[in-house]
Amino acid sequence: MANLNSLLLLAYFLFANSIFVGAALFYWAKPISEQYNAWTARIRQRFPKINEPPDRESSQMNFRIIVFFCRFCGVVLFASGIYFLFHAFNRSR
Question: Is the whole-model pTM more than 0.85?
Answer without folding.
Answer: no
